């Protein structure tokens, strides 16, 4: 029977929506977990996700030692094997429809009778990030909904493809979706097919460097440090006057990210916030700072 490693980090609930949570989330994604869920229970915060069963236990042990050395004794890390079908069944039971913004609703593909008064995004997340459970995904969806001319876009760090699908359903002409994780790009391809949008998007495994511009805009729901590192790539890809939507950021990190983007000609328009998380929206002028 095929199985996955169920990996969990537990710490005090006070760490929720702080840089501690962001750092722990980073360590989990660096390990290779494409989707991380959070649960607050009994005064504790639990971050958990699933890793390929082929991963050697020695790799997990070395990773745990490194994280504990960096974070101190305030965390507990463990893992156990879980059957793939058990994980899928538990996830499907847990995941419910998620209304977002004025018009959108993320709808699990296995549920019947979707609503008629909202734009429905049927989705099967697989193991990839971006189901709408996290505030940053919802913030990006709200920002996409508010952008009047989406045109041709790039979704950098596409996860399961929810933002790519949403942009196309909201009227974008075409899109590119990239992610460094092949599990994520496979999930994006599947969700594009589920929504009959495969002919309007190109999906690639890699980062922003695999794309050629210009595009009319970009959306990127990844970690703050990655957004900062990719700021020159965003400016290279997006045409002057084009839009940008950036999340995966804590409110406490937003000013630093905005500063890095502004050096590449990004003019901040609106900052959206939810539950300690932030989303930056605005447009690129085509002129970097000092030019």
UniProtKB/TrEMBL annotation:
It is found in: Cytoplasm. GO terms for biological process: methylation. InterPro entries: Ribosomal_L11_MeTrfase_PrmA, Ribosomal_PrmA_MeTrfase, SAM-dependent_MTases_sf. Keywords: Cytoplasm, Methyltransferase, Ribonucleoprotein, Ribosomal protein, S-adenosyl-L-methionine, Transferase. GO terms for cellular component: cytoplasm; ribosome. One of its GO terms (molecular function) is protein-lysine N-methyltransferase activity. Its EC number is 2.1.1.-. It catalyses: L-lysyl-[protein] + 3 S-adenosyl-L-methionine = N(6),N(6),N(6)-trimethyl-L-lysyl-[protein] + 3 S-adenosyl-L-homocysteine + 3 H(+). Its main location: cytoplasm. S-adenosyl-L-methionine binds at residues 137, 157, 179, 221. HAMAP family: Methyltr_PrmA. PANTHER family: ELECTRON TRANSFER FLAVOPROTEIN BETA SUBUNIT LYSINE METHYLTRANSFERASE (PTHR43648). Methylates ribosomal protein L11. Belongs to the methyltransferase superfamily. PrmA family. This is Ribosomal protein L11 methyltransferase. It comes from Gloeobacter kilaueensis (strain ATCC BAA-2537 / CCAP 1431/1 / ULC 316 / JS1). The lineage of its organism: Bacteria, Bacillati, Cyanobacteriota, Cyanophyceae, Gloeobacterales.
